[in-house]
Amino acid sequence: MISSKLKTLIFIGCSSLIFGCASNITTTDPKQQPEQSQASQEQLDSPSARIQYKLATQYQAEPQHYHLLKAARLAIAEQDYLLALAISENLKQSPYPNIKAQNILPLLQAYIATEQHQSLQLLLRNTTISQIAEEDSAEYLWLSSQYLSQQQRLLAASRNLLLLADVPNSQTTYPEHMALLWQNITALTDNQLLSLQSNPNSPSSSWLALADLSRRLLGQPEQLQAAYADWQQRNPWMPQPQAMPETVQQLLSLQPFQPQKIAVLLPLSGQFRQHALAIQYGILAAAAKAQSSQIIFIDSEQSPQQLVEQLTAEQADFVLGPLLKNQVDTISQLEQWIWPTLFLNSQDSQLPYHNKHFFFALSMEDEAQQTALLFQQKDYQQPVVISAANNISLRMQQQFSQSWQQLGHKAPQLYQFNDKADLDTLINQLLETEQSKERVQQIDNLVPVKLHSDTHSRLDIDAIYLIADPVQTQLFKPFVDVSVSETAPRLPIYASSRSHSTALDSTEQRDLNGLTFTEMPWMLPLKTNPALREEYQQLFQTQDESLQRLFAMGFDAYRLIGSLRQQQQLSAIVFPGLTGQLRLNSNGSIVRQLSWAKYQNNRLVAVQEP
Known about the structure:
Number of helices: 27
Radius of gyration: 30 Å
Strand order of the largest sheet: 7-6-8-9-10-14-15
Helix content: 40-55%
Structural class: alpha/beta
Strand content: 5-15%
Largest sheet: 7 strands, mixed
Number of strands: 15
């Protein structure tokens, strides 16, 4: 929202000028000239914004609004953003459609320049391209897409950039447009790409087709080159290869890892054998579809020197694994470890980075970071994080708090619980329902005639992030629902994949209606790779959920090998996996973006978040 100081400026500076003539509305031609003022002819020919603002007082009704609009645009050009904001904010209430349409662009520019983020989000949310003056639409699309990209609202930014792609001469008017468009659409999920419907035989549809084929053929250079040549022939209106964004050119020219023999290091003996086998099955399932490399499985439960000797003897040219954290930390620092390696766990952040070492873990912290970003995009201001008092949940809680503060917010409220009794106390404390009950009782004691009174809950909390297991979540969600007063808005409750179980029946799902959570695509019954799902269920009908996740991890790990070199050079590239949308960060670690799902009408549905 607009700050109090700016509100004062806006009120004093413009309200009386604009609305003092509201009762005297006429249909005078906006370009009619008043009688000659005392200002010099030079000032009239090329006035500054503030002179133009004063000249507007000589007009009435629509002509006055027209000259105020001109003053706002001059103020933007002169970087007098507070004046532009004051004028444009008041012109929002103009009764003249043409003025309102032409005011949208300077209002957007003023909001961006003065960092009025909440007002910006309202403007972007409530404005359609048809409401904007035609001559301003391209500039509006460009500025709004830049802002949305900075805010990591990639779907909304992509939508505006695709609209701009269909505007004639946009590539020459906005030379950075293509690069930003490609950066955004390549970072979207598969479902988000599908949601961006476009007119056939248009630049926007061509960009979407290119994003789709580059994603499907990532790591397959010959097929990608052939598909790109075919794409060019079918889309002759698109730029020639040398005029495409540099990232597209690099994608087509970079040679991926193409190992002939892959060594997989897993704890095939010992207490983690079941985990190793689940990953092994995933790798074999992925390899069966590719059939391009020889795979050898090696038990990682031996000394690092023995592993080095065995890999040398086998003449491996790429390594997957090991899985266990202590082995990853030790092996990744060996000088004689010469193989490019995708480790199946995270790296100690204190250890140095090697450019042929990559790290893939099912990190729960990724989910907490993703939720913090979503809360930022939804403009939540007072989230509360409630966590079970165990190590993993507390780590996620701290990650959310850290990410939230890095986004520019104050530290969120953090709560922990151990059992059901703790939950009861915590919810009453959190929502302040006990205090409300006490106030109702005090009133009853003072008034002889008993009155019907409802308890009230806090209104300053705007979202809850719950980090708990499925049983705890089933206790928590209905408890909050009945504790929030009937007069208060429903509190949105978000959770992590720790809250989800595929074994919930319809009654249990009903209790969770309204709960939104993150989860890897493989664990959601939303038609993710149906052929592989059918094959998996035939082989492993009773495999538990933790092993299902490891199967998906093994499947993705094998398929990631072909894309790692491109992702290392082109940070925006996203690999669509069973475990999420996978991006490689600057430290060689795979960062997952999970899918969103929600319990709604007693069933699980996909949610398209920004």
